[in-house]
Design goal:
It is a single chain. The chain is of the alpha/beta class. It has three domains: 161 residues, Rossmann fold, CATH 3.40.50; 127 residues, Rossmann fold, CATH 3.40.50; 143 residues, Transcription Regulator spoIIAA (2-Layer Sandwich), CATH 3.30.750. 48% of the residues lie in helices and 13% in strands. The chain has 20 helices and twelve strands. The strands form two sheets. Strands 2-1-3-4-5-6 form a six-stranded parallel beta sheet, with helices on both faces. Strands 7-8-9-10-11-12 form a six-stranded parallel beta sheet. Helix 1 packs across helix 7 and helix 11 crosses helix 12.
């Protein structure tokens, strides 16, 4: 049997190339390989739409010509759902029952009732949906396809020792590397200057790698409230079954096999918050990296309050070239309402200054549309972002994103109770996802209903598009 694992792009970005392959697709590939199922991975972000579409049909036709059973999996988020389902529908119309389509991912888990109902009644072009964790569900689905015993709905949660790492062995790579030589030379010179060391540099099969990373127990909610949030509690449970030593061994093997230029570490909290605990952790991390003899610059996710000037030397020894963290807002009232650990602009800019002075890249993610948003706070956001763009060379500034409504959040619960008749809300409940324009409209209408400052949604969207796109 042949399994094609797809990872479809955001509709508005599907023709843009990304340097980092999907860790979700890489994890599913590892699971399928352990199940002894032949598989390939088509990541549309990584390949670009043209190569993605060509390879999708080429490998389907090749498998059918060889009389192989063929399954195609789609893992979706809200942003990718519409585009992915459009591709799935097209494939079913073209190949019919010769292929088996599998649907899962974050959005299916967020809205399981809608996806279950729409799969059963035939509204969705999926033969199967999986609710829960792929580590648990995918082997069962693949075995049932082989034995002609396929069910419509599969559910399952992993045990803590079921967690798999990602493998990039089966990714189909682009025909042309997307970072051109002059850009590669520029990055090489910069990284060698930053770390003051030569390092192995080549054109690899996968130019950059995405890893889930090792969860270091850095939960800001726990820091502020005494107990970890539910997301980090799950991470802490999983962490008990793998040591830092085991994780570094896996990462070293991945690096030696793929020779990546950069690693994107997606662990939500790369290092502990407190300075002394963080220093001890990083010293051990560096010791293990040196034992395995690999040096690759990495971009990590952290929290603004986790950056300590006393530990800059260790950030560089750990080959951290950049941090990604959420600033959310520069308005103290909004920061307090969102219960953010950074309490004011002084705290934010102190961290920015530390990173800028030490030539470490950082990006700050901001959000607009909280209940306390007003024309004054939007003007404040614009002013601060323009100041950052003009004064911080090492800040890879991102345009603000609109507040989105997701199941389980306080905003979602309030909307569900107060405004159930909204047309976009009904569509979200019925379909299980919204197109990006419709999600923006839903968020904007929610803000108009509950915003004490009565912001006009059209004005907010126009402001967002025209005034806040800094880089």
């Amino acid at each position: 049997m042949q399994l094609i694992i797809t990872y479809c792009a955001h509709e508005e970005q599907k023709r843009k190339r990304h340097e980092f392959p999907s860790i979700t697709a890489g994890t599913l590939s590892q699971i399928a390989s352990k199940n002894e199922t032949s598989n390939i991975v088509l990541d549309e972000y990584f390949l670009g739409s043209q190569d993605f579409n060509y390879n999708l049909h080429h490998h389907i036709k090749k498998a059918l010509k060889n009389n192989e059973k063929i399954a195609i999996s789609f893992s979706i988020t809200n942003d990718t759902a519409e585009h992915a389902l459009e591709i799935m529908r097209m494939l079913k119309e073209k190949y019919g029952n010769k292929i088996t389509t599998l649907l899962g991912g974050m959005q299916v888990n967020l809205m399981p009732e809608a996806f279950t109902q729409n799969t059963i009644n035939g509204k969705l072009p999926a033969d199967v949906i999986g609710i829960g964790d792929g580590e648990k569900i995918l082997p069962e689905i693949l075995n049932d396809i082989e034995n002609n015993n396929l069910q419509k709905i599969y559910k399952g949660q992993t045990n803590t020792n079921d967690k798999e790492f990602a493998s990039y062995d089966n990714f189909i790579h682009p025909k042309v590397i997307s970072w051109y030589p002059n850009k590669l030379i520029e990055i090489t010179k910069w990284t060698q200057n930053l770390f003051n060391q030569e390092f192995d540099f080549r054109f690899p099969h996968i130019p950059n790698l995405t890893v889930e990373g090792y969860y270091a127990g850095n939960c800001t909610w726990k820091e502020l409230n005494g107990e970890p949030c539910s997301f980090c509690l799950d991470r802490e449970t999983r962490k008990k079954n793998i040591s830092l030593e085991e994780y570094i061994e896996y990462e070293a093997e991945l690096v030696k096999k793929n020779h990546p230029r950069v690693i994107a570490d997606k662990a939500p909290n790369f290092m502990p918050i407190r300075q002394k605990e963080q220093r001890e952790y990083l010293e051990r991390y560096i010791e293990l990296m040196n034992q395995h003899q690999y040096r690759v610059p990495r971009q990590v996710s952290s929290n603004l309050i986790s950056i300590h000037e006393e530990n800059i030397d260790l950030y560089k020894k750990a080959w951290i070239y950049g941090f990604s963290f959420g600033v959310e807002s520069f308005n103290e009232k909004i920061l307090k309402q969102q219960n953010k650990p950074q309490k004011n602009k002084t705290h934010i800019y102190k961290t920015f200054d530390i990173l800028e002075q030490n030539q470490i890249w950082f990006n700050c993610q901001t959000i607009i549309g909280s209940i306390n948003e007003s024309e004054e706070t939007l003007d404040e956001m614009k002013t601060e972002l323009q100041y950052i763009a003009g004064n911080y060379k090492y800040c890879d500034l991102l345009s603000p994103t609109l507040l989105s409504l997701y199941p389980g959040t306080k905003d979602y619960q309030e909307y569900e109770q107060t405004y159930p008749e909204n047309e976009y809300w009904k569509k979200y409940q019925e379909n299980g996802y919204l197109s990006i324009p419709d999600m923006n409209k839903l968020s904007l209408e929610y803000m108009q209903e509950c915003n004490k400052n009565n912001l006009n949604p059209e004005y907010l969207m126009q402001y967002f598009r025209e005034n806040l796109k800094i880089r």
